[in-house]
Design a protein that fits this description.
The structure is a single chain. The protein is α+β, with helices and mostly antiparallel strands. It is built from 11 helices and 13 strands. The protein has a 7-stranded mixed sheet, with helices on both faces. The protein has a 4-stranded mixed sheet with strand order 3-6-4-5, covered by helices on one side. α3 runs parallel beside α7 and α6 packs across α9. The longest helix is centred in the N-terminal third of the chain and has 19 residues. It is globular and about 60 Å long.
Length: about 325
Amino acid sequence: MRIKELGEFGLIERLTQAAASRDDVVVGIGDDAAVLRVTPGSLLVASSDMLVEGVHFLKDRIPARALGHKLLAISLSDMAAMGATPKFALVSLALPQDTEVEFIQNVYDGLHCLADRFGVSLVGGDTVSASQLVLDLTVLGEVVPDNYRLRSGARSGDLIIVTGDLGSSAAGLAWELASPDPDRASAANLREQSIRSHYWPEPQVAVARAWCGQGLLTALNDISDGLASEVNEICTASKAGAVLYADQIPISPCASEAATLLDKDIWELCLNGGEDYQLLATLPGDQLSVATRTAAELGVKVSVIGEIKPEAEGIMLVKGGRTATLSKAGYDHFA
């Protein structure tokens, strides 16, 4: 069945059937606006992300459930970057009339599955007809006033840390766009892992909340546009410089394999590929052991990759005994 056969109101009814109500949702889907109960003493945190067909995803490649998962995951990662707890989501869809209802239903299934895991309620949105598929999600969260972290708090002498491994998502995209696909029998498992990383990112909400609750961090960001871009953002906001050591950056085995088989630059994948949705943070050196232990208890690996320096020293990368400026080269929609 196509969207034009079901109609807008029939589609809305079908997509919102799984939206469960909670005590903090006073009025959910079905009225002109949602009425939500915010925890007393907490601050409201809001973030919005958009996925556009042909720009952020290829509809004939990405599984529909993965599209719904990723739509919410990237906004949950923004919540993690602030140390916030995600609570509510509003989803707006721009749909071509010949879009299959089953495809959109599967998108929402993927969205609801991730929302249930993180305790997020879908409380509203909008649907319109359009010439291409566009999905927009706004997430609302909460944070205790003393717990949120910004990009602007890094201080000279702070260590720079990241969670997880980097480059998997960029490797997954490279595999999906590879034509022809090279012989990969020996790397099939890593290929599938990298594609899964690209389509099914895991936002690091729990470890970010734990770190911020412990008061360990001076600055925090998530790696959406690439490590180089995010480091530059923290340094610019903090009026600081930085030095990163290439041999300490945790490169994903998936990225290494993709770079070899697809003739890609491994550093382009890891520094500028983006969409890893890991955390980039700064903290005093005497807080590192606590941060590492906390992350380990949540099953998250932490790597020290550099140090914050005075602004006058610039933002540098040390690789192979040479030092060069680490340029901000992440994805730019308007470049």
